[in-house]
C-alpha cells in the first residue's frame, strides 16, 4: 500500500484509474455518468470501460471532496488495470496553460517519470456555490535518491521561462531537518513553510537546480515526495504553480500514518471464496471510518456471512443494521455503535455490482477484520475478456475518515486491488468443435453425395500394377 | 549545309530560351485536401512487441511528415511502454541499437487495450458510432480526405486476427470501404497490411480509388527483421524495417517520390516474401500517386523570420513596418524582456494587425517543394549547357572536315 510504505502525503489514488463525478440532481445518474465518462476518457486517453455498469456504482457515505455532502449524487468508477503512461501524461500536460514548455511543468519528462517507485496524476474540477470553477491538477511522485538534486530527479534543472500565465510559481519544501543545506537557500514563504517563489529567480537567467547536501552524516535514505499541484480559478489568469517537496526519513514515516489497511482473497477452489479487509487504527484516538466495498456481480456475495472480528475481543462484533435511506448523513447517528451496516445493494446478473457500506468505530490500536463469503458466478463464453486466463481485477475498497476532531481534510484511503481467477473455458473450443464436426460431416455427406451423384457410365479401369512394391535387391 | 546550319541555329535558340525558364513541372496531380491515418496494431501479449513497434514506427513517420495528432487514429491492442515487463520504462524501440524511442514525449493513443476489437474497428471506418463516443475516437473524414490505413498483426488467408480471439475478414473490410465510398468519406485510401498472407486481405475490394500494399502472398509468412537481446523479443518486422529505410529519406512536402518507387525499394529477397501493390479503379494514373499524398499532410507553411517584426506594447496602434525597434529574437531564451507583457502575445497580435513587409522579407523561405523544382531545373540547365557545347563542337568539327 502506498501510504504504508512511503508515508502519508497528498491525495491518494487507487491502482489504475478512477473517475468520480458528482451531479446536481439524483435523477438519471447512469446515463449522465456514461456521457461524462466517455468524454473524459477521450480527453485523457483512457479506456471507455469507466462507463461499464457492472463496475461503476454510487458510494453513499464516502465523501470525496470536502465541500459539501454529496451523498447519492456521486457516481464512482474504478479500473484497477488501466495502464498509466506517456499517452495519459500528454493530455494532462496539455491542460496546463504553458504545457511543458514553460514553468515547473518543463521539468516533467516521461522517461524519468515512469521509472519511479510511484506516480499518480489527477485532475479535479469543482464548482463552488458561488458558481466559480476551480481546476486543480496534481502530480504525485515518489523518488528514492541517494542525492537530492533536480537534475537527478527530473533529468534536468529548471531552465527557461516561468509560465507567464501563472500568478505564482512556488516551490515548497517540507520535512527536512536542516534547510540551510539546500543550494540555493530557501526562504520563509509564510505559514511555517519554506521554499521559493520563482518569479524573480529564473529571470536572472540562472538554471535552477535545487540541491540538498547535508553537512552532517545523517541517514538520508528516506523517500522524497514531490507533490506538484497547480491551481486555476475561473478567470484563468490566476494560476498557482506549486511544487511541494517533502523529504521524509524512515523515522518520520511511522509518525504520519493513521490507519493500516489490507485486503485479500480467501479462496479454496474454483467455486467459493471470501474477501477479507483488515483495518488497524494507528492513532491515539478513536477513529470514525466508513468502508465502501463493491464487488462485481460474478462474485455472488452471501451477505449473511458478513462478520467483523476484532483483536480486542474474542467474540465477533455485532453489526447494527442501519440500512436506511438518508438524505443527509447525521454523523452522530452513524457512529453510535461499534459497527453498523449502512447500506446493502444486492447484485444483478450481468448488471450492477453488490455493495455494502459499513460505519466503524475503532479504538486506538484495534484491528477489525471484515470478511464476507462469495460464490463464483458463471460467465458466458463471450463475456470473458480477451486475456481471460489472467483473471479479473476487483476494484479496491474505499475507507474514508469522518469526524469533527480531524483537523485534516477528510481523508480517503484505498486498499489494494484484487485479482480474481474465475474458472475459464477452453477458448480454443469453438475452433476445435467446428473443425471436428465439419470434418466428420464432410466425410459422411461427401461420400453419400459422391455415391448418389456418380454418373452411370464408364468407369476407368485402374491399373493393378502396384508400383510401390519394390523388390529388395539381394543383400 | 545552309539548312543544317539554320536548323542547328533554330535549335540553339530554342534551347537558350529554355535555359531561362523553369521547365520541370510538379508531378502533383492529387485531388485531396486533407490527410488522415488509421494505424492499428491488433495483437496482444509481450511476444508481439514487434507489432506495437511497427505501428508506432508508422505513427512516428506520419507525424513527422505532417499529419497532426487530431487526424491520426492510433489503435494499440496492448500497452508495453509502462508495463512492468519492459526493462526500459516509457520507451519502445524498433531497432536493437535503441536509437529512437518511438514513444517519445508526445504520443496520443486513441484506442487501447480491450477497445481494439473488430467491432470498434469497423465502426471507426464506417463512422457508425454510439452517440457518446468522443471526438478523438472518430474518423471525421470527408470527400476530400486521403486516408492511410495500416494494419499489422497476425493474419492468414483472407483474415486478420484481433487480440488473439477475433478475426476480421477481407469481405468485412471491403464492405466497410464500400460504405465509406457510398457515404463519401474518402477521396483515396492507401491500405497497407503487414501480416502473414497479407495480400489476400485486399482480394475482395470493390470500391474505387483504393491502393493496397501487402507484404506476403497466399501461403507465405511475413518475417520479423531482427531480435533484441536486451528486450528479449523481436523488435521489428522486415517489411516495416525496409519501409522505414525508404521513408526516412522523405522530407515533409516532398512532391516527387511516387508510391511505386516506395514499393520498389523493397525486394522480395530482402523481406523474404512477395509484396504486392494493387490499385483498385484508381481515377488518376497510378504512376502519379505520390507517397506524400498519403503519408504527409498538405499545409503550405510559410515561415517569416521573426527578425522582420517590430515589437511594441499593446498601447501602440500605428503600423510601423520598419526595423528600427528590432527588439530581439524570441527564440533565444536569454533575451526575455523585462516587460510585463509577454513577448509572444505581442507577436501574435502583430500578425493579425499588419501585413508583413515584403521588401524586407528577402530572407523569405521558399517552399520545400519549390526547392525541389529548382534543383531539377538546375540539372536540366546544366544538361542543356553541355548540349550546346556539344553542338558547337560538332559543328566546328563538321566545318573542319568538310
From TrEMBL, chain A:
> What keywords were assigned to this record?
Membrane, Transmembrane, Transmembrane helix
Q: TM segments?
A: 431-453
InterPro entries, sorted: PIG-T
What Pfam families does its record include? Gpi16
Is Transmembrane tagged as a keyword?
yes
Which stretches does the entry tag as region Disordered? Answer: 226-249
Record carries keyword Lipoprotein: no
Please give the name of this protein.
Gpi transamidase component pig-t-related
Organism per entry = Anaeramoeba flamelloides
From TrEMBL, chain B:
A Pfam family annotated for this chain is Peptidase_C13
Q: In which pathway does it act?
A: Glycolipid biosynthesis; glycosylphosphatidylinositol-anchor biosynthesis
* Ranges where the record places region Disordered: 312-338
* Signal peptide (from-to): 1-26
Q: Where is the composition biased (Low complexity)?
A: 324-338
| Residues that span the membrane, as ranges | 379-397
Asked if the record carries the keyword Nucleus, the reply is no
**Keyword vocabulary terms for this entry:** GPI-anchor biosynthesis, Membrane, Signal, Transmembrane, Transmembrane helix
Name the family.
Answer: Belongs to the peptidase C13 family.
Q: What is this protein called?
A: Gpi-anchor transamidase
Species this protein is from:
Anaeramoeba flamelloides
Classification lineage: Eukaryota, Metamonada, Anaeramoebidae, Anaeramoeba
